[in-house]
């Protein structure tokens, strides 16, 4: 480059040479800008994490200068990993909420992506009603987590006492389907696309849906208070990427289904049905309404036998999400 330009530089004079050399030196010697690396945990492989998959696959994280690894970690373990700094954020906010309701856990929920349970109670082919689950085994991802709570509410509504059910931790949702097939458990609360595979491929029975149940603030963004204080600008970029992904999810059925099919390793028709089943459960702006939060915390207090619901301010901090929504024109 210096050789080809030498005649023009010479004609321009010595000061121009020094100026150009300074520019070239600064370009060649300046370090390349590196993306901020983050680990975002998810409790299970399902459509519940779809906006994270979209943000990574469609480049929204990259646009924000972020290099995000999405790692599957069971809820309680994810909390420990966040507190130790091994994980920067977790999508499994249901488990974090229950920990906050029972302790002084130094974490906050910054966004909520799901406002309804995305679980369907599924049983082996020979079990055709909830009543027949008495004395049977239920698989779940985390004891006391969103999936476990949703399943037990459906079972109680079906007239079976939870004391008559044996609950075992059986891996994530796809692993629980394999346990159903292998007859090591009798029932599980499955989410899309796994519930569709259970019904169509393995002839499992769908005994009930938690979608129409009470509001359940199930997934989103949970971080430690320390990380929120020290990396607020980074978290704002994370939330902006997720909100752009959420908008893509709401407006693009085909593209979203393609991403889901890729990450969940399912056929496109299964992904499309999963999208249509799940879409109504997602929040439009990452923030549930005050009524939804009040209803949810009241039901949580009853479930956990608390004297009164825990205050929303102890659990949630939506200030960053509100800033992002204003910037992106999201209402």
Characteristic terms for this protein:
single chain; 331 residues; alpha/beta; D-Maltodextrin-Binding Protein, domain 2; 2 domains; five-stranded mixed beta sheet; three-stranded parallel beta sheet; 16 helices; 10 strands; 49% helix; globular; disordered N terminus
Helix and strand topology:
Layout: H1 6-12, H2 14-29, E1 36-42, H3 50-57, H4 60-63, E2 66-72, H5 75-83, E3 89-90, H6 93-102, E4 107-112, E5 120-123, E6 137-140, H7 146-157, E7 166-169, H8 173-181, E8 187-190, H9 194-202, E9 205-209, E10 220-224, H10 225-230, H11 232-251, H12 253-264, H13 268-278, H14 290-304, H15 312-315, H16 319-328
Parallel strand pairs: 1-2, 1-3, 6-7, 6-8
Antiparallel strand pairs: 4-10, 5-8, 5-9
Major sheet: size, sense and barrel closure?
Answer: 5 strands, mixed
In CATH, the topology of the largest domain is named D-Maltodextrin-Binding Protein, domain 2
Mean pLDDT: 89
Helix and strand element order: HHEHHEHEHEEEHEHEHEEHHHHHHH
Number of strands: 10
Please tally the helical runs, counting DSSP H or I stretches of 4 or more residues.
16
* Tally of distinct domains: 2
Assign the CATH class of the largest domain.
Answer: Alpha Beta
Q: Which range best describes the helical content: under 10%, 10-25%, 25-40%, 40-55%, 55-70% or over 70%?
A: 40-55%
């Amino acid at each position: 480059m210096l050789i080809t330009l030498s005649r023009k530089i010479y004609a321009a004079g010595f000061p121009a040479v020094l100026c150009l050399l300074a520019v070239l030196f600064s370009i060649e010697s300046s370090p390349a800008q590196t993306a901020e690396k983050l680990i975002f945990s998810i409790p299970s492989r399902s459509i519940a994490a779809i906006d994270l998959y979209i943000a990574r696959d469609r480049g929204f994280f990259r646009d924000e200068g972020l290099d995000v690894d999405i790692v599957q970690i069971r809820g309680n373990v994810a909390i420990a990993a966040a507190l130790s700094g091994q994980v920067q954020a977790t999508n499994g906010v249901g488990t974090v909420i229950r920990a906050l309701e029972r302790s002084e856990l130094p974490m906050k929920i910054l966004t909520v992506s799901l406002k309804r349970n995305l679980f369907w109670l599924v049983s082996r082919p020979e079990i055709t009603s909830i009543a027949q689950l008495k004395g049977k085994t239920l698989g779940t991802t985390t004891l006391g987590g969103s999936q476990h709570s949703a399943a037990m509410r459906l079972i109680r509504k079906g007239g079976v006492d939870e004391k008559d059910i044996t609950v075992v931790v059986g891996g994530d949702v796809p692993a629980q389907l394999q346990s159903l097939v292998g007859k090591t458990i009798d029932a599980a609360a499955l989410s899309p696309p796994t519930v569709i595979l259970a019904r169509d491929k393995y002839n499992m029975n769908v005994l009930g849906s938690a979608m129409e149940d009470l509001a359940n603030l199930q997934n989103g963004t949970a971080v430690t208070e320390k990380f929120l204080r020290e990396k607020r600008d980074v978290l704002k970029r994370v939330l902006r990427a997720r909100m752009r992904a959420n908008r893509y999810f709401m407006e693009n059925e085909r593209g979203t289904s393609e991403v889901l099919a890729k990450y969940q390793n399912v056929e496109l028709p299964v992904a499309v049905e999963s999208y249509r089943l799940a879409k109504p459960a997602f929040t439009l702006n990452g923030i549930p309404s005050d009524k939804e939060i009040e209803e949810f915390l009241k039901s949580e207090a009853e479930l956990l036998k608390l004297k009164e619901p825990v205050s929303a301010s102890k659990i949630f901090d939506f200030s960053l999400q509100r800033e992002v929504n204003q910037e992106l024109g999201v209402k």
